[in-house]
Amino acid sequence: MRHFLNLTDAGPDAIAAMLDDALTRKQARAGWPKGRADADAPLAGHVLAMIFEKNSTRTRVSFDMAIRQLGGQSIVMEAGQMQLGRGETVADTARVLSGYVDAIMIRTDDHAKVEEMAHYATVPVINGLTDASHPCQIMADLLTIIESGKALPGMKVAWLGDGNNVLASIVEAAGLMQFDVVAACPQGFQPEEQAIVRGNGRARVVSDPREAVDGADIVVTDTWISMGQAHADTKLHAMMPYQVDAALMATAKRDAKFLHCLPAHRGEEVTPEVIDGAQSLIWAEAENRLHAQKSVLRWCFGQIG
Q1: Does 185 belong to an annotated binding site?
Q2: Which end of the chain is more exposed for a tag (fewer CB within 10 A), N or C?
Q3: Considering the domain boundaries, does residue 9 fall inside one?
Q4: Is there a single domain that holds both residue 208 and residue 90?
């Protein structure tokens, strides 16, 4: 059974194969209506259950369209509208859904929930986001970087701000795909040591944002106040020196690109001139959630790698 809870579940060869498949399928669809199935409809007859314990725009729409374009169907379930939100265990939910659908995607808080879901499910389980990692987002980021003409091995990625779940998955990707990550995070908001260890020596944390961005190929940030957190003035004050503005971008390579998984708060983690500027790839990055996740689904069903 192939579950996609973290990037390591697939490994570098499968990730490379998925990225190649995503790029090929995206190019093959150029000019097509969004709702038209791929020519081979490789997941025809398959149903994906999508469980949301956290609100979503990109994850919801991209996975829904992904399974449709692969020829399958989806069922969307809000935790508050199903028994999971009324005390039914994750294990029981996994067992029940496995009898109805062919795969489960869950977007939740505690990473232990997706692990429990995968343990008891008899169908593939995909991590749509947890507090610990966001592998589907990073698959889209890697696809976007490749599309921009950059090679993954040996590149430098600079991260600015909170040491969160997105950073954890970027670091994990660095260890697998052989690029470097330098994360600039304020004291008290640095990533857990375990997350950095997963980079296999390809990641380090610094306090100076200019040190992180100097010579970078890719500059990445994320919202400082994550979903479910209070809008903490103390945290915002600590983060302000890590805002990505034009002056900071100027210390990266001249052809450096800017990424942000969205939603964004212009004027907080990034200035409008950067996120809406020529170096920003955020709209391609958002669209690539769809294309990358199609290949993740195919990998889960043994069609890739």
Answers
A1: no
A2: N
A3: no
A4: no
Q: How far is 159 from 189, CA to CA, in rounded Å?
A: 13
In a domain, 22, yes or no: no
Q: Are 9 and 34 in contact (CB under 8 A)?
A: no
119 is in an annotated binding site: no
Is residue 136 a known part of a binding site?
Answer: yes
Q: Give the separation between CA 223 and CA 53, rounded to whole angstroms.
A: 19
298 is an annotated ligand-binding site residue: no
Q: In tens digits, what is the pLDDT along the chain, a chain of 305 residues?
A: 999 999 999 999 999 999 999 999 999 999 999 999 999 999 999 999 999 999 999 999 999 999 999 999 999 999 889 999 889 999 999 999 999 999 999 999 999 999 999 999 999 999 999 999 999 999 999 999 999 999 999 999 999 999 999 999 999 999 999 999 999 999 999 999 999 999 999 999 999 999 999 999 999 999 998 755 655 788 999 999 999 999 999 999 999 999 999 999 999 999 999 999 999 999 999 999 999 999 999 999 999 98
Catalytic residues: 107, 134, 137, 222, 261, 289
Burial class (CB in 10 A: 0-12, 13-18, 19+), 288: buried
Same domain for 145 and 75, yes or no, is no
Domain that holds residue 169: 136-285
Claim to verify: residue 145 and residue 244 sit in the same structural domain: yes
Task: Return the structure tokens found at 192.
Answer: 């857990």
